[in-house]
């Protein structure tokens, strides 16, 4: 039975994307709605078969974003992390490309760009694209600026958290424990706490030297993803009162150890015993100072103080760490470690099996943090372009490159 274009509801489209092995959040209709207020328009297309009984079999879908040029009536057609199709199924790929091209041209698209969520070592993907007129987009000198989505990703398998915890480095496990015992409180919050997350984003952007999205962007992202429970906004708060109690408990523990160390030194004097006593005395002084600091801060922040926040989104069994932010204060308490570990636990409980930390072309410090979670270095096929109208397509391609290099 021949393939033909299908008219799917948004829910039917999204269900197919969530269940497909090549599906991705950026190919769902909520992502299209999120991009509307940043100047994009969008359409969805689908292909498949319809039986004599009216039963439909969907074999491929795509969400297309359109960005028009400011002067000419031309547009870039972009399928972020699309198409969602079995690239070894030539009939479905041909039918889907034909429908995408038709819809793109109807919306004045002259350049079609895609970056499938398919591994680069998939034997079907590159031949399927190149044989149909796609060419690999030249990443230029800085792939982070010239490619819409990084091809290199860091992805952690969270299908077995007990096994993952054992595989984490000793330092990472210690950071999680420290965060859990330092008066930090993890919260999965709603829309009303997004402004608190946004304040942390502003701090992070100023510290690390990058621009941030508007508050409206994040509230819209929540609005479009929350109806299907595909978004988690997390905050980690420092409870200064609890932190003071934890510091006092450490003081008491160190004092007990100090008494034993002093008694041992009297019986067996040595430089090693002297160092041990000195270290414990320093620990006591440090924790006493911390306790006093937390007690004073508790008077100023009786409701606590937010130290870290993130936005995590899911699509079927796949999870993506979209945004993360942190305060300049109390970073030594490791709030981000507590946050990631709790998100992983909650996501795994809902059937999510992978945690995508994003691209590996980020800042050195952020990349090092991602590496603490035993991720797999995963490379996607990359970005490919097809000119739907050769002359106009080359013009749009030039405009896009100039815009990205700014």
Walkthrough of the structure:
- The protein has helices spanning 10-19, 29-36, 90-106, 125-130, 143-146, 161-167, 170-180, 194-208, 215-225, 240-267, 271-300, 335-349, 364-371, 390-404; strands at 4-6, 41-50, 56-68, 75-79, 84-85, 109-114, 135-136, 152-157, 184-189, 231-238, 305-315, 318-326, 354-359, 376-379, 384-387.
- It starts with a strand and ends with a helix.
- It is 46% helix and 23% strand.
- Strands 1, 2, 3, 4, 5, 6, 7 and 15 form an eight-stranded mixed sheet that branches. A seven-stranded mixed sheet has the order 9-10-11-12-13-8-14, sandwiched between helices.
- α7 (170-180) crosses α12.
- The longest helix has 30 residues, at 271-300.
- The mean pLDDT is 90.
- The protein has 406 residues and is an alpha+beta fold.
- β11 and β12 form a beta hairpin.
- The chain is elongated, with a radius of gyration of 26 Å.
Features:
406 residues, alpha+beta, elongated
- Number of DSSP-assigned strands: 15
What kind of oligomer do you see? single chain
**Through-space gap between termini:** 49 Å
Backbone structural class: alpha+beta
Question: Which overall shape is indicated by the principal axes computed on the Cα atoms?
Answer: elongated
Number of helices: 14
Stretches with pLDDT under 50, minimum 5 residues = none
Report the C-alpha radius of gyration, rounded.
26 Å
The percentage of residues in β strands lies in 15-25%
The helix/strand series, from N terminus to C terminus, equals: EHHEEEEHEHEHEHHEHHEHHEEHEHEEH
């Amino acid at each position: 039975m021949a393939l033909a274009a299908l008219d799917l509801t948004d829910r039917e489209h999204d269900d197919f994307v969530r269940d497909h092995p090549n599906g991705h959040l950026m190919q769902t209709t909520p992502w299209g709605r999120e991009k509307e207020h940043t100047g994009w328009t969008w359409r969805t297309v689908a292909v498949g078969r319809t039986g004599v009984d009216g039963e439909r079999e969907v074999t491929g879908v795509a969400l297309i974003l359109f960005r028009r040029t400011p002067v000419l009536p031309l547009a870039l057609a972009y399928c972020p992390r699309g198409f969602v199709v079995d690239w070894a199924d030539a009939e479905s790929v041909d039918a889907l490309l034909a429908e995408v091209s038709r819809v793109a041209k109807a919306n004045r698209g002259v350049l079609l760009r895609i970056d499938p969520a398919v591994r680069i070592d998939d034997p079907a993907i590159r031949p399927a694209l190149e044989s149909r007129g796609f060419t690999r987009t030249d990443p230029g000198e800085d792939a982070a600026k010239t490619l819409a989505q990084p091809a290199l990703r860091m992805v952690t398998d969270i299908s077995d958290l007990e096994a993952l915890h054992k595989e984490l480095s000793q330092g990472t496990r210690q950071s999680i424990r420290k965060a859990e015992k330092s008066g930090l409180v993890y919260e999965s919050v709603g829309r009303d706490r997004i402004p608190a997350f946004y304040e942390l984003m502003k701090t992070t952007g100023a510290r690390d030297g990058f621009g941030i999205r508007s508050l409206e962007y994040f509230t819209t992202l929540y609005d479009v993803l929350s109806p299907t429970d595909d978004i988690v906004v997390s905050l980690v708060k420092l409870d200064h009162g609890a932190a003071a109690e934890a510091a006092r408990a450490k003081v008491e523990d160190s004092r007990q150890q100090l008494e034993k160390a002093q008694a041992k030194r009297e019986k067996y004097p040595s430089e090693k015993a002297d160092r041990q006593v000195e270290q414990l005395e320093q620990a006591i002084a440090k924790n006493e100072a911390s306790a006093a600091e937390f007690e004073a801060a508790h008077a100023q922040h009786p409701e606590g103080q937010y130290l870290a926040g993130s936005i995590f989104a899911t699509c079927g069994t796949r999870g993506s760490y979209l945004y993360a932010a942190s305060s300049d204060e109390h970073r030594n308490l490791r709030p981000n470690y507590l946050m990631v570990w709790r998100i992983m636990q909650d996501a795994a409980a809902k059937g999510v099996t992978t945690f995508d930390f994003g691209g590996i072309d980020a800042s050195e410090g952020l990349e090092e943090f991602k590496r603490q979670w035993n991720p797999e270095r995963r490379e996607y096929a990359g970005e490919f372009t097809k000119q739907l109208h050769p002359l106009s397509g080359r013009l749009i391609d030039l405009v896009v490159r100039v815009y990205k290099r700014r």
